Recover the amino acids of this structure.
């Protein structure tokens, strides 16, 4: 990931260092991040199902506060903690899966996804107590 003075615009109006983790609720996550046009690189569900980690090729250029000197895209790690409910497509090939939108429905974060190769529609739905967002180095 290209670095810009060791900071990047990960959240509306706030610069984070690469060592910093941005902790928030699900509603804050949906409100503060524009996921449209970002790509899913991988999804990992912890064996006991209490944590889900999604690596995203994130569209920094879509975010409020984006500056032309910032990288257009880069990998971020989104960790859903204390997961109480999730629905992740089994055996999905995450190659060429783009995020259409994220929303909050009944306390659950929903990722609406499109396989850019096949035009198949997919969803990831996660209910968790908190969300961590950090650069994937």
């Amino acid at each position: 990931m290209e670095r810009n003075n060791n900071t990047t615009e990960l959240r509306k109006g706030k610069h984070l260092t690469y060592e910093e983790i941005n902790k928030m609720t699900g509603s804050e996550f949906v409100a503060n991040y524009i996921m449209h046009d970002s790509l899913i690189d991988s999804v990992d569900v912890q064996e006991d199902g209490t944590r889900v980690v999604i690596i995203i090729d994130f569209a920094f250029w879509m975010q409020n506060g984006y500056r032309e000197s910032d990288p257009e895209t880069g990998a971020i790690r989104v960790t859903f903690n204390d997961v109480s409910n999730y629905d992740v497509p089994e055996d999905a090939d995450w190659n060429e899966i783009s995020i259409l939108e994220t929303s909050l429905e009944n306390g659950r974060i929903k990722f609406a996804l499109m396989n850019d190769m096949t035009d198949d529609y997919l969803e990831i739905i996660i209910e968790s107590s908190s969300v961590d967002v950090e650069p994937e180095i």
